Amino acid sequence: MFLYNLTLQRATGITSAIHGNFSGSKHQEIVVSRGKILELLRHDPNTGKIYPVLSVEVFGIIRALMPFKLTGGSKDYIVVGSDSGRIVILEYMPSKNIFEKVHQETFGKSGCRRIVPGQFLAVDPKGRAVMIGAVEKQKLVYILNRDAQARLTISSPLEAHKSNTLVYNIVGVDIGFENPTFACLEIDYEDADQDPTGEAAAKSQQLLTYYELDLGLNHVVRKYSEQLEEHANFLISVPGGNEGPSGVLICSENYITYKNLGDQPDIRCPIPRRRYDLDDPERGMIFVCSATHKTKSMFFFLAQTEQGDIFKITLETDEDIVTEIRLKYFDTVPVSASMCVLKSGFLFVASEFGNHYLYQIAHLGDDDGEPTFSSAMPLEEGDTFLFSPRPLKNLVVVDEMDSLSPIMSCQIADLANEDTPQLYTLCGRGPRSSLRVLRHGLEVSEMAVSELPGNPNAVWTVKRRIDEDYDAYIIVSFVNATLVLSIGETVEEVTDSGFLGTTPTISCSQLGDDALVQIYPEGIRHIRSDKRVNEWKTPGKKAIVKCAVNQRQVVIALTGGELVYFEMDPTGQLNEYTERKEMSADVVCMGIGRVPQGEQRSRFLAVGLADNTVRIVSLDPNDCLSPLSMQALPAQPESLCIIEMGGTEAKEDTNEPGTSGGLYLNIGLQNGVLLRTVLDMVTGDLSDTRTRYLGSRPVKLFRISMQGSEAVLAMSSRTWLSYTYQSRFHLTPLSYESLEYASGFASEQCPEGIVAISTNTLRILALEKLGAVFNQVSWPLQYTPRKFVIHESNNLFIIETDHNTYTEETKTQRKQQMAEEMIEAAQEEEQELAAEMAAAFLNEERPESVFGSPKAGMGLWASVIRAINPLTGETLEKINLEQNEAAHSIALVKFANRSDDTILLVGVARDLVLSPRSLSGGYIYAYIVKENGTKLSFLHKTSVDEVPGAITAFQGRVLIGVGKYLRIYDLGKKKMLRKCENKSVPNFIVNIHTMGNRVLVSDIQESFHFLRYKRQENQLIIFADDTNPRWITCSCLLDYNTMAGADKFGNVTLVRLPISVSDDVDEDPTGNKALWDRGVLNGATQKADIVSSFYVGEVITSLQKATLIPGGSESLVYTTLSGAIGMLVPFTSHEDHDFLQHLEMYMRTEHPPLCGRDHLAYRSYHYPLKSVIDGDLCEMFNSMETSKQKSMAEELDRTPAEVSKKLEDIRTRYAF
Amino acid sequence: MSFKREGDNKEQLQLLRKRRIQDLIGESVPEDEAKLLSNGRFTCTVCHHNPIFDTLDTLLVHRSGKKHEKGAAIFLEKQRQLKDLIEVRKAEHFEKYGNTNIKIAKEHLNNKHLMTSAPYDARSKKSKPYDRKLKVHVVPKSSSKSSTYLTKTPQIPGAEARWCGLQSSEPIIHDKQLKNVFCRKVETIEEIKPYKSNRHKNPNQTLSCSNTINSAKDSVLIDVHEKDNVRLVLTDDIINSLTTQPPPAPPPDIVIPNEPKIQTEEQKQFCEKIKQLRGAGWKRDWDGKWIKDEDAEFDSDEEAPDI
């Protein structure tokens, strides 16, 4: 079996973010790494939105990112530290919208190794050198410079190794134009390694080491090293030279310290803590990330604690000697992986978990009366400042980027009873977690809905002048009237527009520079800017049935199939062409393209006829109205639309010229099919037709504008948008009710919107999240969701469990206790005041989703069982478990001895301590599901000796994995009754699947075990297992013999029992042989075969066999911790497989991955790649240069269009 | 993965080693010069008095002896003469009929290198290369005949019935009869197959077996066993054939009487019930009473079933 890997949605979590002028313009961009994806985000200061411009999978693990700007340069390069054993310097090419590899220098083995550099990157702030460091021992320094052509050059590496040291962080110290220096947070473990008592290890101290690159000697020296008092986690470089005092800020537990070379004394300031915090007071507080903002006159740092509180750090100096560190509470935002302060005054927060945010810095927090904490304030050792967190004050949320990361679990089902299934995902961590319902489609934001006096037929928008940015009128056509609405502050009806209101309208448009045209059944009305009106009336009894219009041309079809062509002359007069053309059949629809930039007319007219053909008619004066080409259709056409796609927009700020794309003829058929055909720009030939079924109704097409380029809105029973995004075609449905007619809409509030009609309403819609595959509806949850089950009533039962957390009950108790202490501690006379404060404290409600939940300490667990309606988000039932009870597994079971009730079983661990692992026991809670899945009533609780990690219904009873024991339980009256047990699974059962008498168990470390239940003897016997140790996270039973599983390293594997394997124990009726006869190393005697193996690159959290589109085929869908959704698709024909295998092979050599990792080696990270073709690599064919595409397609004996069609076909057959 | 042997059982290793050596030595003896007898002993076919040896070793000692060498010379000479004779006969035949297709007595080449057993393979089911008991293979004369006898005796399915049918219609033909010496023996090549269940080989047969028992004794299977004071052993075979596998569609010309089918239905339920009890942790002791399995848990008021 061969599989094809497709990514449906790329990872959404961000591991690191940097900002700089990557395109060389004045605007700052953000580059983020999403594990294996490098993405460039651009921020539009006008709308405040942040949107991805380029997203590239690098087929390697990005471990570090740094922006790098040469001295005096204006463009930032991107330095990437990855697992490739190479340093890679990338440059963003705005004209081609690609990352280009400028340098790639090999220094070590590939893979994430502790001794091979790649984990840490630091650049010299003046742009002369870059240091790349490993976790242990090795550090290399590269000198970067420019050559005569001003190209970036890279030197050979200079070593700065020191054995027996571990590195925590490296930064480039800003010391102006003296020799580049790097500060490094290290620990020397040599003594600790030698000392078996562990005394030395306990005493070992961190070092702050300076490495200096002597540019004169071309050599790196260890300049200075100093022991640190506190254990630090990262460094912040302080601006130096002319801009600041230089030096570093050391962020350590509870303190932030300023250090510099020379006679600068250390300045130390404690990190403030929240007042009346429920956190464990013994816990230290650390900063987790920081951002620096620097202008010519000032600089400050924003540093975030692990509770999410941001502090603004400023340094007071006295002639370049720092005298004081000042901290000021800024705001509280989600705990982030990286923060970027942009020059335009925005703060980008890449959250560790959940959605990412863009904030505008509205205030700098100066002079607002809030306390400033300073190192100069005397405090006792161990004491710290206190502050009260508050809602946002200095920051304003501007934009939010959805992030599913981490997806804890996912199930695909059609609970909403739509024709396409939805993905129900459990996302997030702690109080910011959510249940998200994902549907394929673009999210539509409804800007306005207004009712109209009747049911309109059509709607258009027109500008008053061609050079205006925004539309002036909305024209709505009814059966017997036309309504004109003017767009301003408000939208209201006008009568002075010149449009004829007493007749229905067929079409209208802006004409020439400043005129308008209205086409109605009896004629054409040309409205000049001075309100003069020219009318053209239809001859005799003929009426206009169809028309096609653009800025300079009007074509109408009269009854009987006669075409009349008008073109605007230089005086602004609309002139009829001398000849008319009689078509062979009735004209059903017509389409004309926009007038290309700098040309007089669009050269092609597309005419759809009743004889199931589309004809291209020339509008060139040389051969006007002569037929050029024809295409036969499977059904009658309904609508036509010629658009130009694939080109790029010219940008004023960067002076990039726009490139022109190709012309495409979109044909909507009456049977609900959309055809997209390439229209040759010169000859008018039609070629390369792509077909897609959109819905049950005839397809109507409308041209709109999306991100500056043209797009087609296709309306059938669902509305679809066909557009190019990041140089790829997308055809995505809108997640919105069905519409009848639409037109583009541009106004100040909504520069790229849609005006549409649906029954008797006029709607103004905006599409903001272009490129997103799924739109999501999110329902908040309390703790980290772990697993869920779907009840037959379509309600979900979710278990949420958090470590290091209090339950609600304990929290109130603790609060009460703290309040009492407050009163008690107060002096006699202050008692009253204290009581007031205590009352205020008790009443204070801090939403945990904003401020985080208090950290209770290790070994404290809180859990909730929740029944939720996934469509309305209503929580129907919530059962709080006791403090320290952690729900681990859940299942809905129908027992044979109680067949009327559905029983919900929840496996709970009691007092679980993770390291070293211990627990006081486990329970299985049984609840009866009542009132159609809305109520749970407690039945009984069974105590077990280990963690019940997996529960599955099995033949009217239930299989429970209790630690390493697999047991069959039956429902008893007082508790669950153990009926059968197998003790042979090695470590811990994470998953159980059953089929017939077969039971498939996944062990946490030892892969799959195939068991057979012998009813006669009431025994579970392992008859086969896997040969590889796999740390299974999730699995899916594909058929009786085949199992798909994913491990925690990111591999997906399919194993299958060979035909020769038998689960029969006939020869041996007692089963003792199979029970006792163990193979090598205590494994089973029979082994499963590996069918295929593939490294995805992210931890996979769920696997499911599902059909994602109606009428599609089944595929294996996986979700990952970083929020990606992908699928493995089986090949149906050998031909496809052969072709794609070749394509993959060529892609590997011709288009090597960006960060220097070998593709094949990457996909074989832990186990050799087997029988899986990487669709993500193959689909990169579309983003390659045309010449390369051509040569590669030639080698494959195809044309580039055929290759991309094949790639599109295989994707659309299974997904979107 | 390594193929390390588990444990330190020297004896087993010795046995295996010895067997392997035998296998290897056995290969050195030409096939037509010695023979493995059905009782596992060996004979030398070169010497005219065909001496019998208990082991391969003694055969090899004999083969290097003076007596054998003398015999071998004669044997070779005889073979050469036989070859010449065949040539002569062929030539004669050619002159008469224009071809050389003469009848030659078949050579017996079915002793596979004097191997006492199939080569060792851990995965395979061990099958015997020879049968110590003399078995008479009954060869029906033609396949069409065999199908007709089935139609004649539809009421008595099963193996015994086949015998009866044969006795009544045809004389017995078996492969030890003299006239079969010159007819080509049906080659039964011993294949080393991976272990495979018997159960699924011929569901038809198992079903018909059980039917026979039912119809013959005309009582429930369990009663019979209890009468004989034998503990009930419902093998997986029978239960599965009764419950899980639907009876295969009978050939159109065989009419299966209704009565046994109803009984199977009862039987099915009964077996299902027994299985359920087994699954619930009930066991039967030596005289058929239900007892609780000490490894399973029960509700405190749960009582023994009365079946």
Automatic annotation (TrEMBL), chain A:
GO biological process: mRNA processing; RNA splicing
Residues in coiled coil: 809-843
Main location: nucleus
Presence of keyword Coiled coil: yes
Domain annotation RSE1/DDB1/CPSF1 C-terminal: ranges: 862-1182
Name recorded for this polypeptide: Splicing factor 3B subunit 3
Domain RSE1/DDB1/CPSF1 second beta-propeller as annotated: residue spans: 445-766
Spans through the membrane: none
Compartments, as annotated in UniProt: Nucleus
Keyword tags: Coiled coil, mRNA processing, mRNA splicing, Nucleus, Spliceosome
A GO CC annotation given for this chain: spliceosomal complex
One Gene Ontology term of the molecular function aspect: nucleic acid binding
Residue ranges of domain RSE1/DDB1/CPSF1 first beta-propeller in the record: 14-401
Coiled coil is among the record's keywords: yes
Protein species of origin: Patella caerulea (Rayed Mediterranean limpet)
InterPro entries in the cross-refs: Beta-prop_RSE1/DDB1/CPSF1_1st, Beta-prop_RSE1/DDB1/CPSF1_2nd, RSE1/DDB1/CFT1, RSE1/DDB1/CPSF1_C, WD40/YVTN_repeat-like_dom_sf
Family: Belongs to the RSE1 family.
UniProt lineage: Eukaryota, Metazoa, Spiralia, Lophotrochozoa, Mollusca
From TrEMBL, chain B:
An example Gene Ontology molecular-function term: zinc ion binding
Record key words, sorted: Metal-binding, mRNA processing, mRNA splicing, Nucleus, Spliceosome, Zinc, Zinc-finger
Subcellular locations according to the entry: Nucleus speckle; Nucleus, Nucleoplasm
Principal location: nucleus
Start and end residues of each Sodium channel modifier 1 acidic C-terminal domain: 266-305
Transport is among the record's keywords: no
GO terms for biological process, alphabetical: mRNA processing; RNA splicing
Cellular compartments per GO CC: nuclear speck; spliceosomal complex
Domain Sodium channel modifier 1 zinc-finger: start-end pairs: 44-69
Superkingdom of the source species: Eukaryota
InterPro entries the record matches: SCNM1, SCNM1_acidic, Znf-SCNM1
PANTHER family hit by this protein: SODIUM CHANNEL MODIFIER 1
Record-given protein name: Sodium channel modifier 1
Provenance organism: Patella caerulea
